[in-house]
Design goal:
Blueprint (H helix, E strand, L loop, with lengths): L4 E5 L4 H16 L3 E7 L15 E4 L8 H25 L3 E4 L6 H10 L3 E5 L6 H6 L5 E4 L14 E3 L14 H6 L8 E6 L6 H13 L7 E6 L5 H11 L5 E4 L5 H7 L2 E4 L3 H9 L4 E3 L9 H12 L2 E3 L7 H12 L2 H14 L4 H15 L3
Parallel strand pairs: 1-2, 1-4, 2-3, 4-5, 5-6, 6-7, 8-9, 8-11, 9-10, 11-12, 12-13
Helix pairs in contact: 1-13, 2-3, 6-11, 9-12
Length: 371
């Protein structure tokens, strides 16, 4: 039986790309030939370079209300579909997996037209427009949350298998060595502050405000703080100028994310499904601050899933200010038993084998079809 040839299309945000790479890793480990397609704008994500010759880029257009951009949208979409069809034919693709977002749309459209089986991975509780539109043509849909089933009429092939997680997240190391990697070995406890692939100004402002307003609470507490690329310079300067002392590992992006999870006792984070499922897989309790302008308010619903499970507490974007967050955050850090219950609940909400389970489902369907 020949090796299955799979194309994964993902882009726009790390929340789409990272689980796509997790599937890429798993397919490669199973002997499949894999092409990873992303948008030209996504070349800024450094970890895409790890894919070498398996990476392809195209000019997938984003839908915009700007009249000028809207005028050229059909033409740009047409050319993206043409390139997609050529790629499908050239590489003899047997299955296409869309990770959501506008970047996926031209390739999914091309796959449908060429009769190539397509699959969809939906990271968030509320499916995006691309997932909703192409769900009627999909051979299978893989969701992260059970709540997704309430938003789609597609029942037979929808499997709640979780959000694929990259292998580098699953680090096996002692907590002390993990803390030492961030120069925080001397800290009694560690807070991880992370706002997603683009960073989050609200969380950056919150962490700076907490350090300034509650210096005594941070005497034995370190911070691993991911600011995002755009804000790193500003907050590095402000920490140096406005914060008297303290233990902070400040970085635009955390490369050793698995070690960061191991080193930390609690996370303060947005409620994107990618980071949430990584937190769960590593058993890290969290204080979630949903981004209020997320499409269809999906981060709010994502957070509610973890609150219901007991793995997280939720604070609204409006209430994410130092004087309201500090009692919640330090109340958890000072209550070991409650933190441990949340840790166990996080493990319970995790789906560590999501990538393997999704790949197995796709390969099984391919074998059944004689691929």
């Amino acid at each position: 039986m020949k090796q299955m040839r799979v194309l994964i299309v993902a882009g726009g945000t790390g929340g789409h790309i990272s689980p796509g790479i997790a599937l890429y890793e798993e397919f490669k480990a199973r002997g499949a030939e894999v092409t990873f397609l992303s948008g030209k704008r996504d070349a800024r994500f450094a970890y895409l370079k790890e894919l070498g010759g398996d990476l392809a880029l195209y000019g997938a257009p984003a839908f915009s209300k700007n009249p000028l951009k809207l005028f050229f949208f059909p033409l740009r979409f047409y050319f993206a579909v043409l390139k997609s069809k050529g790629l499908l034919k050239k590489r003899g693709i047997d299955a296409v997996i869309g990770m959501g977002g506008y970047v996926s749309a031209p390739m999914l459209y091309a796959a449908r037209k060429r009769g190539v089986p397509l699959y969809l991975c939906e990271q968030n509780s509320v499916p995006g427009r691309v997932t909703r539109y192409f769900s009627r043509y999909a051979k299978g849909i893989f969701s992260t949350f059970e709540a997704t089933k309430g938003f789609l009429k597609y029942d037979e092939g929808l499997l709640c298998l979780g959000n694929p997680i990259r292998k580098k997240v699953f680090v096996v190391e002692s907590k002390e060595n993990a803390k030492a990697a961030f120069n925080l070995k001397h800290c009694k406890r560690v807070i991880l502050a992370i706002g997603g692939s683009q960073g989050a100004v609200k969380i950056n402002e919150l962490m700076l405000g907490l350090k300034k307003a509650f210096p005594n609470d941070f005497k034995n507490t370190g911070i691993i703080w991911s600011t995002g690329d755009f804000s790193h310079g500003e907050y590095k300067r402000r920490v140096q100028e406005e914060v008297e002392e303290g233990s902070i590992f400040l970085s635009p992006f955390i490369n050793n994310v698995g070690l960061a999870y191991l080193a930390s006792d609690i996370a303060v984070s947005r409620a994107g499904s990618g980071v949430m499922m990584e937190l769960a897989a590593m058993g890290l309790p969290s204080v979630l601050i949903p981004y209020p302008h997320a499409a269809d308010n999906h981060q709010e619903i994502n957070a509610d899933e973890f609150v219901k499970a007991g793995a997280a507490l939720k604070i609204s974007n409006e209430d994410a200010v130092p004087e309201k967050v500090a009692p919640v955050l330090f109340g958890l850090l000072d209550h070991a038993a409650k933190l441990e219950r949340m840790r166990q609940a996080a493990f319970g909400a995790a789906k560590k084998n999501a990538a393997a389970d999704i790949v197995e489902a796709v390969l099984k369907n391919g074998q059944a079809a004689g691929k």
